[in-house]
Amino acid sequence: EKGLKDYYDGYFPIGVAVAPRSLEGQSKELILEQFNSMTPENVMKMGEIHPEQNRYYWEAADKIAEFAREHDMKMRGHALVWHQQTGDWIFKAEDGGQVSKEELLQRMKTHIDSVVSRYKGTIYAWDVVNEAISDNPEEFLRNSPWYEIAGEDFLVKAFEYAHEADPEAKLFYNDYNAVIPEKRERIYKLLKLLKDKGAPIDGVGIQAHWSIFDPSEKDLREAIDKYSSLGLDVQITELDVSLYPWEKERRELREGESDEFTPEMEQRQIESYDMFFKVFRDYKDVLTGVTFWNVSDNYSWLDHYPVEGRKNYPLLFDENYEPKKAYWKVVEFD
Ligand code: XIL
């Protein structure tokens, strides 16, 4: 039976974010039928794979890498340097205070070296730096411990260390809200700065945690144009289409609100997916990958985030791993 990867053969690989548990049962079957690329959803993040200075936990990540090799799938690595899901140890000095800049960069190098080297030959692309731009439009870089301790230097260094560890790997900067014009400009500025400083960067990842309300076709096209004008590969790295607009400050379902998947929502989601993939196909020469964030509506990280206890239905396959109507829109083109 044909899957997304077959319909999009000649366009770009179609990836999916996975956990070790996704590689079993019905989920496994669906992955093998539909996708030809994988990203570990969590298990390669520093907090998981390198939870203490002298301790690595490879088992879960190895399992995914082994699956990719066994089934001849591409694999993206995610994510080397991030402000979240990073063990606190890396910022802490022996005396409990903050580590020096030199020590932080040294620890970062050790981390990048060991993780990138281990999956050399299996992982073809790495998200080297994730989400380094501030959420405040007035600011440029996010005020994370990385930035606080090491300033801008950690950015260029991260790419250099990754390149030393695996000169063949494609190295990406990855971020969310990357097609909103205001943030797009700040991401562009960072990419330009990295290039001007000679950082070995190959591409930019547009996370694409989108919704049935946004982004517009115009913003999407303009973002891809703008990023690719730098000569970078562009990838869609974490696609899902939420039924709800993103509201960061919300944490609970409001009184009287339901979390159903209504026919109106379904229709909007079909149209959104249809438009997004039309644009992706138009950009097949610059887009080198489209990855979904999770396998099916059976489980999505949006089921509990940002609103506690609210179910979401953001993917192309339903809770029973069956293709939704949106799926047929995405694959029926000529
Ligand atoms: C998410 C995972 O899907 C969740 O399981 C986890 O609890 C939090 O992180 N941007 C990223 C991803 O780069 O790593 C995040 O993944 C989603 C937002």
TrEMBL record:
Cross-referenced PROSITE patterns: GH10_1, GH10_2, PROKAR_LIPOPROTEIN
InterPro entries on file: GH (IPR017853), GH10 (IPR044846), GH10_AS (IPR031158), GH10_dom (IPR001000)
Superkingdom assignment: Bacteria
Keyword Hydrolase (UniProt): yes
Residues annotated as the enzyme's active site: 238
Domain GH10, first and last residues per copy: 1-333
Catalyses which reaction(s): Endohydrolysis of (1->4)-beta-D-xylosidic linkages in xylans
Keywords from the UniProt entry: Carbohydrate metabolism, Glycosidase, Hydrolase, Polysaccharide degradation, Signal
EC nos: 3.2.1.8
Keyword Magnesium: no
Family membership noted in the UniProt record: Belongs to the glycosyl hydrolase 10 (cellulase F) family.
Name listed for the protein in its UniProt record: Beta-xylanase
